[in-house]
Specification:
The complex is a heterodimer of chains A (113) and B (111). Chain A has 113 residues and is mostly beta strands. In chain A, 0% of the residues lie in helices and 60% in strands. Chain A has no helices and eleven strands. Chain A is globular and about 45 Å long. In chain B, 0% of the residues lie in helices and 52% in strands. The chains are: A mainly beta (113), B mainly beta (111).
């Protein structure tokens, strides 16, 4: 079983829709949870990060972490064509004296005008 | 502006040549990382360094080497021993366990 599972998509939605992106994970030691947006041929851009469980909102983006279910989500409200990109989830936690980062393989999102 | 710079953006090399990719950060982060990204495979960790003059192998270190002589800099050398070097290389940095920031990447093509 992979440590992080993320649906690769592609996910196509009309402009203005609410988008829900999700990841599940298996390692209960993960403490930090991150979402990145990556445009084609660019480096990933950090969108949101949260520590432990709960919700965090930033403009049109909301990140949710449910540690009991080992499930994280990113919601995008009022989606725009400029949101079309690949979204990566990531998490980190202590492992053998260091911090390990694990990334999902990414979900491709297309927002249609 | 704080951030991570990688150079060059595109790099072309002949098979059998070593090549060094540059990564510099001014975020005052202790830890730096190198990843390789191939289509459909996600990010794979090559090397990481948590402190100056120390670094550890990641999941796919064979054919690569690094150095960490300064806190700000973490260059990656792709050696001729790396069997499939053509890829998109990403450098990242963080403080211990917290959010990780990425550079813009270097696309290496070896023919």
């Amino acid at each position: 079983q992979k440590e992080v599972e993320q649906d690769p998509g592609p996910l196509s939605v009309p402009e203005g829709a609410i988008v829900s992106l999700n990841c599940t994970y298996s390692n209960s030691a993960f403490q930090y949870f991150m979402w990145y947006r990556q445009y084609s041929r660019k480096g990933p851009e950090l969108l949101m990060y949260t520590y432990s469980s709960g919700n965090k909102e930033d403009g049109r983006f909301t990140a949710q972490v449910d540690k009991s279910s080992k499930y994280i989500s990113l919601f995008i409200r009022d989606s725009q064509p400029s949101d079309s990109a690949t979204y990566l989830c990531a998490m980190s936690g202590p492992t053998s004296g260091t911090y390990k980062y694990i990334f999902g393989t990414g979900t491709r999102l297309k927002v249609l005008a | 502006d704080g951030g991570i710079t990688q150079s060059p953006k595109y790099l072309f090399r002949k098979e059998g040549q070593n090549v060094t990719l540059s990564c510099e950060q001014n975020l005052n982060h202790d830890a730096m990382y190198w990843y390789r990204q191939d289509p459909g495979q996600g990010l794979r960790l090559i090397y990481y360094s948590q402190i100056v003059n120390d670094f550890q192998k990641g999941d796919i270190a064979e054919g690569y080497s690094v150095s960490r002589e300064k806190k700000e800099s973490f260059p990656l050398t792709v050696t001729s021993a790396q069997k499939n070097p053509t890829a998109f290389y990403l450098c990242a940095s963080s403080n211990r366990g917290s959010e990780q920031y990425f550079g813009p990447g270097t696309r290496l093509t070896v023919t």
